[in-house]
Each structure stands twice: as C-alpha cells, then as structure tokens.
Amino acid sequence: MVRKTMLVLAVAILVASVGLTTAAIAQEEKADTKVEAVVLGNTVCPVSGAVIEEPGLNTVEYEGVIYNLCSSDCKAKFLADPATYVAKAKAQVAEEKAKTAEAPAAEAPATEAAPTAETVVE
Predict the structure, then answer these.
(1) Among 17, 29, 35, 50, fewest CB within 10 Å belongs to which?
(2) Which pLDDT score, from 0 to 100, does residue 31 have?
C-alpha cells in the first residue's frame, strides 16, 4: 500500500513539473514575440499644434505607436483623450505624405520625346 501511494505521488509530481515546464516555455515564447513600437513621425504636436523642435525628445507610446509631442506637459493631456490626439497626429502625417508625394511630380523637369519613325534625321 505504501509503495502504491509513493508511486502515485511520484507520478503526480512528474505531471505537475511537466505542466509547469510547458507553461514556462509558453511564457518565454510569448516574451520572444514582443513587438517593438513604431514611430509615427509626426512633426506637429497633436495636443498643442506646435511644431516639434526635437522629434523623439517628448514622446508617448499608445497601442504600439510612438507619438512626438512638443513638451512633457502635453503627455497627460494626450493620455486623457488618446483617440482625439491619435486621429490628429495621423491626419497630420497623412497630409504631410500627400504633400511630399505631389511635390516631385509638379517639380519634375519635362523630358524630351524619343524620336519616332516619322522623325526625319538629316
């Protein structure tokens, strides 16, 4: 009877240790897949509307995105109503990208047309 109890106890300890080891491995894998935050790159503070003099100096991370702010005072305001300020920052960045995309096309020099079969070369 003692042997049987010892055997059951040993099996229970073995099963428990395997379960703990599996949980530890799963936790370690989850930690390894941690995603780093992405810098939005906004150049205007979404809280105050001021131009950001030193991007990266005053920032706030929200839902995996890092937003630039003009001062540390704006961080509390941002975190109090993040949806409003996230929308403003993303709109500013989208507007800036649109301006950048339009500028090269408008400023591109005209290219000379290639000669065609109808072009007479003397």
Answers:
(1) 35
(2) 60
